[in-house]
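Predicting holo structure, flavin mononucleotide bound.
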Amino acid sequence: MSDTPLAIDSLHLRLAAANGLIRRRRSIKPEQMSDEAVDPMILGNILENANWAPTHGMTQPWRFKIYEEEGRERLAEGLQRIYRETTPKSGFREDKHDGIRTKIFASPVVIVICMARQESGVIPEIEEVEAVACAVQNMHLTASAVGMAAYWSTPAFVYTEEMKAFLRLNPGDRCLGLFYLGWPKDRENWPTGTRSPIRERLEWTE
Ligand SMILES: Cc1cc2nc3c(=O)[nH]c(=O)nc-3n(C[C@H](O)[C@H](O)[C@H](O)COP(=O)(O)O)c2cc1C
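Done. Tokens:
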């Protein structure tokens, strides 16, 4: 990049675009979503951007199972059953059980996030999980960029063997949660986020 004033302006514009995209991303829960459908073109872009996440060894371990419209019934039934089967009696809550279905039907698209483990196991498992997290972030950033509501949810049962069986995952694969996607009911008031200062989590060595 040259150091002309124009280049400096364009540098600031690029920074502003990156800052805006990243800092505007918010978790917006299904309860706050409208029932407006998600345009297949936008969903296609969201998924395509997931595919551009970094991946060690080009394994591209992200797998997404997408539930829309009537397909959500199968997901709701399955997840409620898994919650019943995997929750100890003492911890079972009727409201949580009902909430599974309510959340699924409150969002037009539910994406189950999975990690496919390569048979060779060359890449450490943690790196495959990290790559999937990067893919989810790409989806979330894209959704926020167009003003869509998105939310990554990880109820305890997503990590169970029952969940793996429901999703027909291979033994080494993992389910990493649910990604709810839709449009916010309130499009005027985008939620603000909070973070404590980054300097509290930095250590500089000179
Ligand atoms: C791996 C992962 C799992 C998450 N699981 C949950 C969850 O189960 N329940 C929940 O309320 N939020 C969950 N979240 C979302 C966080 O609550 C959210 O990112 C946090 O409140 C910060 O808000 P923001 O995303 O709007 O910046 C999860 C986030 C990540 C990265």
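Strands lie at 62-68, 109-115, 149-153, 174-182.
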